[in-house]
Write a structure and sequence with these properties.
Elements (H helix, E strand, L loop, with lengths): L3 H11 L3 H27 L4 H23 L8 H17 L4 H23 L4 H21 L1 H4 L24 H23 L1 H11 L1 H6 L4 H27 L9 H14 L5 H20 L4 H15 L4 H18 L1
Helix pairs in contact: 2-8, 3-8, 3-11, 3-12, 3-13, 4-5, 4-6, 4-11, 5-11, 8-9, 8-11, 9-11, 12-13, 13-14
């Protein structure tokens, strides 16, 4: 018969928060690793810079979804509303007034954040399926407004003629995508640094507490809804910047940037990479869009079936996403080194 001390010792060993330590290690390694891989593919894949630019901008958008879902527990299928609002705001600014790329990012982030703040204050009193339906409704409303405001947005034809100025007055956006990719990569890295600071801050920890136990947060004097509304607005800024970045690097904004399908794809990418990890957004986006590109190029008729099988395989064998598999491999390697 085991003693109480022995049982407590075993329980302590079983519940030791090792995954958090591994996650922190991944946090410290993640940004330099993404920067190194990003620069490496710039030299190794010079003919695919347009795809790589889209991946970088999309990863920033998926990162915004990770903030609200992975850290705030807010289920949403309307994140594209903030993305499209930021893209249109940046495009309208460039076409009519100022085409500086940094000004476009700032205006896009502000537009996405304001939309998220206003809509979040209205809809975040709901939970579950009701909240999910409200986020879809917000996305549909934004898309319809963009479609009707044809004089500003181009309607169903899209907003074109976006010609951003050279970055810092020196680096022009060329047709080969060199400046676009490096600019998108730099913005993504800055976004990761800022997001990491947010989720590690007392505010970020409070949001995670609301996600796990809102009643306890209320009991200690916090306001769960206020935390979630602010987090939703912050994520809206990230989504707006991602939309503006897409407008800067592609030169066009279409109605699909506010559509439901784009929100759904972002959710798939996030689940694929792993929620609540930040870097899962980048890994999931790169994996999904990379596999999508390769399969569509090799089999334009059946690539959707292969994409479905790929997603099913990840969900079945890595339910925590690709990042969880990386963490698991890191844990096994540490265990072998410790036992050696």
């Amino acid at each position: 018969m085991t003693s109480v001390a022995e049982r407590d010792g075993k329980a302590g060993r079983m519940t030791r928060p090792a995954p958090l330590g591994k996650r922190r290690d991944l946090d410290w390694i993640g940004i330099p690793l993404i920067a190194a891989v990003g620069l490496a593919v710039y030299w190794l894949l010079p003919d695919d810079l347009a795809l790589l630019t889209r991946i970088a901008a999309s990863a920033l958008f998926v990162l915004s979804l990770d903030l609200v879902l992975g850290y705030g527990g807010i289920a949403t299928l309307g994140q594209a509303a903030m993305f499209g609002t930021g893209a249109y705001a940046a495009g309208i600014l460039a076409v009519n007034w100022i085409n500086d790329p940094f000004a476009m990012l700032a205006v896009g982030g502000l537009a996405g954040g304001l939309l998220a703040l206003v809509t979040g204050a209205l809809i975040l009193h709901a939970r579950g399926l009701t909240l999910l339906m409200l986020t879809i409704a917000v996305g549909q409303i934004v898309q319809e407004v963009a479609n009707k405001a044809r004089d500003w947005t181009g309607g169903s034809d899209g907003l074109s003629g976006i010609d951003p100025a050279p970055v810092l007055g020196m680096f022009r956006f060329d047709m080969f995508g060199h400046t676009s990719y490096l600019f998108a990569l730099a913005v993504l890295l800055v976004g990761l640094v800022v997001a990491r600071r947010i989720v590690r801050s007392p505010f970020g920890l409070a949001c995670r507490g609301v996600s796990e136990d809102p009643l306890r947060v209320s009991a200690i004097g916090g306001s769960p809804k206020s935390y979630l509304v602010v987090l939703y607005a912050v994520a809206g800024v990230f989504a707006g910047v991602a939309g503006a970045l897409t407008a800067v690097t592609s030169g066009i904004v279409g109605l699909d940037s506010t559509g439901f399908s784009w929100s759904a794809e972002a959710l798939v990418m996030l689940v694929l990479g792993g929620t609540g990890r930040l870097y899962g957004a980048v890994i999931g986006t790169a994996a999904f869009m990379g596999v999508h590109h390769i399969l569509a190029a090799n089999d334009p008729y059946h690539w959707m079936a292969f994409i479905g099988l790929f997603l099913i395989g990840i969900v079945l064998f890595l339910p925590g996403g690709i990042v969880s598999g990386v963490e698991r491999l890191g844990g096994l390697r540490r265990g072998k080194e410790g036992g050696a």
